[in-house]
């Protein structure tokens, strides 16, 4: 599963703000898979496991920025990753077991057919002596176990997710991230307002100096026109 891109990252901004943007995307990415994963969709469960892993890794590096909500979310993301990983193991193993069983049966069918020779029909006793006949039961039982274990793990996954929603694990992390981004936006607005006020003050000071220079120039011009002194009279 390709990770969603994180927009508005800026090396000129704080670690906290950039971290908040990354965590926000990774959290949203994980939550987006929940409805389909809880409905038993295998691909969604696999993608959600990867998304949980990415969220966990980000929180391991930057969780200190967001405090306790991030620490809790990191541990729960690890738990979620473990549960979905076990489900994924069942999904990987079950087709392999069934494929192996099918291959053994195909080999045995060929072997039994070979023993039949040119007989017009097959003697059932030949099938009872198939080379891999003792392996079938074990593989069938293993397939049953994997199917049943997957069902148990899906119930465990659903219960786990309900507990996180009830305790607000992901909501608290989202609030911590939102608060950090809000503070960052307010800090930028304050900095921009201060910079704007500084520029306005500098512009007013330049205008005042320019007006003073123009007034002085006009005074000198009047004195020259009147034949008077061209320099201001200093007081004793």
Describe what you observe in this structure.
With 236 residues, the chain is mainly α. Helices cover 81% and strands 0% of the residues. It contains 6 helices and no strands. Helix 2 (42-62) packs antiparallel against helix 3 (68-116), helix 3 (68-116) packs antiparallel against helix 5 and helix 3 (68-116) crosses helix 6. It is rod-shaped and about 145 Å long.
Keywords, separated by commas or semicolons:
single chain; mainly alpha
Report on the biggest sheet: none
Strand residue percentage: under 5%
Low-confidence stretches: none
Structural class: mainly alpha
Topology:
Layout lengths: L14 H24 L3 H21 L5 H49 L7 H4 L5 H35 L1 H58 L10
Helix pairs in contact: 1-2, 1-6, 2-3, 3-5, 3-6
Please outline what is shown here.
The protein has 236 residues and is an all-alpha fold. Helix content is 81%, strand content 0%.
């Amino acid at each position: 599963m390709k990770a969603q891109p994180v927009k508005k990252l800026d090396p000129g901004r704080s670690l906290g703000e950039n971290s908040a943007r990354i965590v926000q995307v990774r959290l949203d990415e994980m939550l987006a898979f929940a409805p389909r994963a809880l409905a038993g969709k295998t691909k969604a469960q696999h993608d959600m496991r990867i998304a949980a892993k990415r969220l966990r890794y980000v929180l391991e590096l930057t969780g200190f920025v967001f405090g306790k909500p991030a620490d809790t979310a990191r541990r729960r993301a690890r738990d979620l990753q473990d549960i979905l990983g076990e489900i994924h193991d069942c999904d990987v193993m079950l087709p392999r077991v069934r494929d192996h069983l099918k291959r053994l049966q195909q080999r045995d069918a060929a072997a039994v057919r070979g023993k039949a020779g040119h007989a017009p029909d097959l003697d059932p006793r030949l099938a009872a002596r198939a080379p891999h006949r003792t392996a079938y039961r074990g593989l069938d039982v293993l397939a049953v176990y994997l199917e049943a274990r997957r069902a148990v793990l899906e119930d465990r996954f659903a219960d786990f997710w309900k507990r996180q929603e009830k305790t607000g694990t992901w909501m608290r992390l989202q609030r911590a991230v939102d608060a950090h981004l809000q503070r960052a936006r307010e800090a930028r607005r304050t900095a921009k307002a201060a910079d704007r006020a500084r520029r306005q003050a500098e512009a007013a000071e330049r205008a005042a100096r320019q007006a003073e220079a123009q007034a002085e120039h006009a005074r000198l011009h009047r004195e020259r026109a009147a034949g008077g002194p061209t320099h201001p009279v200093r007081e004793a």
